[in-house]
Here is the input.
Amino acid sequence: MARFGQAAAELIIILGVALVIVVLFFVLSANMLTGARVQQNYDDAHASVTALVEAADSVYSQGEGAVRKVAITLPSGTVFGGNTTFIGRPSDQPLASQNGISINVNGTALFGQTQTSLVGQFPSAVGKYSMRVTSRGAYVEIYPYLVDVDKYSVTMVMAQNETRSTSLTLTRSSGEEVTVQPTMNWGFSSINLTTDPSGNFSASQYGSQITFTVSSGNATAGMYNSQMTLTATGATSGTTETINIPISVNVRT
Here is the structure.
């Protein structure tokens, strides 16, 4: 009986040691996997910042109207906020240079700097996104990519006392429903400009037209410059994209 008791005790000890080894193995493996995931998050953020910086410098060198589409990842652990994850400059540093791009992951800023001033914003949730990078000549816009437009400016040449119309086509590029809000900043009383639609509308995957109609008077003459701002919002993701459409009307005498 003593031998059986000793054998049982030895078996328990062996099983206990084996259990400890197995537990340590799983703990070490879990720590390694966690560390690998954290490192991957940093790598994804760094790659996203680098791609946006390269695209911004590229379209800036090409000139006004140049556009690039960039795929990015906002990884798990991204710290959202205007002074942590931003395009341009931190919201709490109004005097800082406007040419920074930062994605903050778990308190660590992955930062890049461009050759030009930036205007734009990141989506407000983790995930994979497409970003539109557009040169506006003196600066570059970076926004989530939700819609396409067939032209990035509206130009009209007309005579006095004449009415003319032109249009642009906006096409939904995202898989989610997208609402577009057009905002017109037309401050001229001597020449009338209307748009159709003038209020919010749902962007179609087959193309939605915005028609511009301009009416000049007998005393109207010269150049009239303004812009329309199109703000697109994704229904599911809540991401927004802003597209500024310069408008130029030349009334000849």
About this structure: The helical segments are 2-62.
